[in-house]
Every structure is written in C-alpha cells, then in structure tokens.
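@channel anyone free to eyeball this complex?
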Amino acid sequence: MCSYLIKYGACQTLSAKAAAALDKELMSTGAFSIDQLMELAGLSVSQAVFRVHPPSLGRRILIACGPGNNGGDGLVAARHLYHYGYAPTIYYPKQSSNELYQRLSKQLRDLDIPFVDDFIEAEKSSDHIVDAIFGFSFSGEVREPFPAVIRALEETTRPVTSVDAPSSWNIESGPPESGPGSKFMPAVLISLTAPKPLVKHFQGRHFVGGRFVSPTIAKKYDFDVPDYQGLDQVAEIPSGNQKL
Amino acid sequence: MCSYLIKYGACQTLSAKAAAALDKELMSTGAFSIDQLMELAGLSVSQAVFRVHPPSLGRRILIACGPGNNGGDGLVAARHLYHYGYAPTIYYPKQSSNELYQRLSKQLRDLDIPFVDDFIEAEKSSDHIVDAIFGFSFSGEVREPFPAVIRALEETTRPVTSVDAPSSWNIESGPPESGPGSKFMPAVLISLTAPKPLVKHFQGRHFVGGRFVSPTIAKKYDFDVPDYQGLDQVAEIPSGNQKL
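replying in thread with the prediction:
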C-alpha cells in the first residue's frame, strides 16, 4: 500500500494549476526536454496497459489521441505497445502542426501502424482502448469531433485505459453533471507524475507513472512518490478508498 | 536463442560506418530526436545492469562517462539506476558544453548524485562499474585522462558493464594489441541497436538494447531484432560461440 492512504485517507493529489507549474519547472530548472518527458510518460502508459491487458488477452488496441500533450503521450505509448507485440490503431483527428507530434506520428507510420478516421467503426474491431484525448490542462467543453468519441467510450464494452484523466472529466471535480462523459468510468487510469483531484471519483485500477521525479520536487509539490518496484515505470495504488 | 547464431555462427553485426549511418537515418527520416534515442539507450543500459547486478548485490555503482554520446547514455542510465535504488557516482572528466549533456548532468545533480574527479579512488568504494567512455565512433588512441581509467578497468575486481563497446577496443577488430585496454574484458556488454564486429572477441554476458527499431530499418541494415520479452528494453544473446 502506498502512503497516500495513511496521510489523507485517499490519494494525495496535484491540482491542475500545480500540475502545470510542475511541468514548467521540470522543463526549466529541472532541465528535462519535452521529448524526454513524453517518452517516459508514454512508456509508463504502455507498461500499465501491458500489466492489465497483456497481448495474450487481445492484441488489437485502439488509441484515441487528442490535440495536445495527452495525445502525444498516446503516440509514444502506441510505439512501445507495437514493440511489445500489440497491433495498435490510432485515431488522431486533430493532428497538430507541432513538430514533436509530427515526429511521433512519423515513427508510428514507419511501423505501418494504421491511422483511422472513424473511431466508432474502429472501436468495434478492438480488444482494448486507450483514451489519450485530454489531460490535466482540459477544462470547459468537449469540442468536436470528440463528443461522439466520449459517448462511445461511455458505452463500449471494451476496457478503456485513460491517460492522466478520464477525458471530459473536470480535473478538480471529476465527471461532468450531464452530457458526454457524465457516465464515463474507464477500467484503468494512469496518473502521470501524481494523481489529480478527480481520482476521488474514479473506481477502477489506478496506476501512477513518473519514475523520474526527484525527492526535492515531490516535497515541493507535496506529493508522495509511490513505491515503484524493480524496473517498473508504473506503480499500482488504491483507487479512492480501495485498498490493494 | 536468437537467430544470430543460426545465421552466422556468431552475432550478426553492424560496422562502425553502418552504425553511424543508421544513427543519422533514425534522426532524419526516422524522425527520432537525440533526446529520445539517448533516453531509450540509457534506459536499456540501466535494465541490463539491474538484470546482472540487482541492487541487493551492491548499490554503489560508479559510472565512467566519456565526452560524447556514449557518456550521455551513461548519464541517462545513472538517473534510472538511482530511481531503482542504486547509489550512483559519476566520473565525467571531459564534460561537454553540448546542451543535452549539460541538461542530463543537471538532472543528476538535482538528485544529489555525486560527480567525482578521481576514478581510481572512487573505484575502491564501488560495487560495480559502468564503462560509458567510448562507443561506436571511437577509433585511434585513448586520450588523457582515460588511459589510467582503462588500466583501472582492466585491473579492477569489480564487475564492469560496457556500453556498446569495451572502451579502447577497436569497433571492428576488438582489443588493442598492446597498451591500455589490451587485457580489458568487461563482465557485461550491452550493444546498442545491434552488436558491433568487436563482439567476436567478447566473452562475458551480452545484451542488446534498442527496442524501437522498425523492421524496415533492421532489414535495410541487415541485422536481426532480438527476441525481447515482456516489457524488457534489453534481450540477452549469446557471446561469440556461447549458447544461452
């Protein structure tokens, strides 16, 4: 059991504002590049997926990528998953002109990983889904074309792994009261660096990824580094009041 | 067993020239950044070290870093090793002004990892050594201050893991006929992307790291991708005519 429960009766969390400040600090005084951080984030996502759904349970994995960094984490995860033996398919409807995302996409195309336009259709022939649409910087409304995707994620019978946040959820207060996402509960959540306040509302399997944070940074932002084991880039921690 | 032995009676290898061309291709049409590749290389080094010498066998690990990319791989490995529970010490006498290496060093300093000036002294209080001095671009003479370090690596009773090449070895023809390195035989070698011709002369445990290479690239450069297992970023393969 992680020490989160001991301290707070629930996981110690990082607000959206604190998460943004931490990211900024890692990339300034922390001297990390975004390439490095995204590689490590995507690697940890791929490890959480493997732990819960090893390729023997189904190789066809559909990865929905949003327009920002959360989508970039999904692109990196897709590459690692391919190398673990999965057959990924990418849904990436709002491809950024950002050079980093372009490069991550090219790396996938060089592996002949298909990019598809129709999420609803692709969902039918997948074994498992990764939701890398919105992360900690999401707020407000879900914009087109994502409302239909969020509804499909609500209704799918396939297990869904969300990256950092179930997409459409408010980072502080959790699921929206109505509309797309109000009934969305992914099977798995991987919190990057530290859990966000929305985890109070999450009831599935919960992982934390981010085995690069210095004790100084963790102390400054007042969160606990989980007990990573062996070579793992992820650690499973309790969800809400659940004990492992 | 990997398919190397079947094909060639020894590992299929990549010449220094081909390795340089491959690196260039990965970073141009392959769309990888050097940050990404170095992160993945250092990660695979850290995994090979963990496999052979888990922290329970001794946490004090001395990492000798050269002035180029091999040294950069060592710096990345040091960070991961710290997070696995090791107590790394860095010997990095020719610190480059290259911005990437500066950032990787800063990441280590933020973890309070010591940088030392005296390799010989530091060797005495280490349990294990990583040789990240010279990689596939090495040729010619070992320059100061490294001859004494290479001699210490030859004489140490601590196990040494070499990154991509035992430092001082010629990439094609192996150990030098005389002088520093002529008797150097590390316990472990981790070949990055693919083994170099020098592996014919290597007799320790041999790993390959580089679980990001596309089948197209492997085919073009005519090497086999080893059978990586599970989430591993490294695969152990036979040394010379040894079978696993």
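from a first look: Chain A touches chain B at residues 30-33, 35-36, 39-40, 43, 46-47, 50, 79-80, 83-84, 100, 102-104, 106-107, 110-111, 211-212, 214-217, 228, 230-231 (CB under 8 Å).
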